[in-house]
């Protein structure tokens, strides 16, 4: 694949693996790349904890074993590693071709060895937007569970992260889950300035009591978005946060939710749960998470 060169900070980076979510990741990444007029890099990371072998059998061999068994195991390790690298290269080539067919001229592939979270942390200076599937190769979120792998990525990177779910659907509308916190105020600024949402209707939804303070903050955010040329529908609703957000999304057939991610520590999340995780688990459409 293309060598690591011509580094740019205007890059949509998309993580691809052998999971069922990879086609949607490719398509949403291509969509974002075209909207942002940004280059697109597909990243495939070979995790040392799994490759070249799923388990190190050599550690189980006793002192009486013959040396040629160790040699054979080493040879199998090498062959498996080579096969996984080759599979990854084919995967990246297919992703690049899919993006180019969608109209992305500046699409490249990059293969790395190591830990996914550490690799993304190292590369985040290049990233404008990260696109990643909710379900990884091992089915992190199969059965209504969001794995720690995805959570670690979102918590570690201080970049907008688009988490895909289901198959690609051309975004026609977007909803910002607004709580007047730092992340969602940042989201207002981003949505007002970014070409990613240009021309798309925006729903601004706050969940909570309809107080004067809440109304003023929502109206101020609505005004800022309208001043940037957006068509905005603002609303305050009471109730359970996850149920209200997902119910509103279903009611208005909204294609994407934008929300702040993991506003509290892991310790607090352990006791009270996480709105981010619950929305990730239950949503059937992509989420753009802001840190």
Automatic annotation (TrEMBL):
Residues 10-163, 211-291 form the UspA domain. It holds the Pfam family Usp. Belongs to the universal stress protein A family. PANTHER family: STRESS RESPONSE PROTEIN NHAX, UNIVERSAL STRESS PROTEIN UP12. This is Universal stress protein. It comes from Halopseudomonas laoshanensis.
């Amino acid at each position: 694949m293309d060598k690591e060169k011509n580094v740019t900070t205007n890059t949509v980076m998309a993580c691809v693996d052998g999971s069922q979510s990879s086609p949607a990741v490719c398509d949403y990444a291509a969509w974002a790349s075209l909207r942002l007029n940004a280059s697109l890099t597909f990243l495939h990371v070979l995790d040392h904890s799994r490759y070249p072998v799923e388990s190190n059998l050599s550690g189980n061999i006793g002192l009486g074993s013959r040396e040629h068994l160790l040699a054979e195991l080493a040879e199998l390790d090498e062959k498996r590693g080579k096969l996984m690298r080759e599979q990854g290269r084919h995967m990246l080539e297919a992703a690049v071709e899919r993006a180019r067919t969608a109209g992305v001229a500046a699409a490249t592939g990059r293969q790395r060895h190591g830990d996914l979270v550490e690799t993304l942390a190292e590369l985040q200076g290049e990233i404008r937007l990260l696109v990643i599937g909710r379900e990884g190769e091992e089915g992190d979120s199969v059965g209504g569970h969001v794995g720690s792998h995805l959570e670690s990525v979102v918590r570690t990177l201080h970049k907008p992260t688009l988490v895909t779910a289901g198959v690609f659907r051309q975004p026609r509308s977007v909803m910002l889950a607004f709580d007047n916190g730092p992340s969602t105020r940042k989201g207002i600024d981003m949505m007002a300035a970014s070409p990613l949402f240009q021309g798309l209707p925006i729903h601004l939804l706050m969940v909570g009591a309809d107080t004067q303070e809440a109304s003023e903050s929502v109206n101020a955010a609505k005004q800022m978005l309208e001043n940037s040329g957006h068509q905005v529908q603002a609303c305050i609703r009471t109730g359970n946060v996850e149920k209200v957000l997902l119910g509103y999304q279903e009611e208005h057939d909204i294609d994407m939710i934008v929300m702040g991610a993991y506003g509290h520590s892991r310790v607090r999340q352990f006791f009270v749960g996480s709105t981010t995780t619950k929305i990730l688990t239950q949503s059937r459409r992509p989420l753009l998470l802001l840190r």
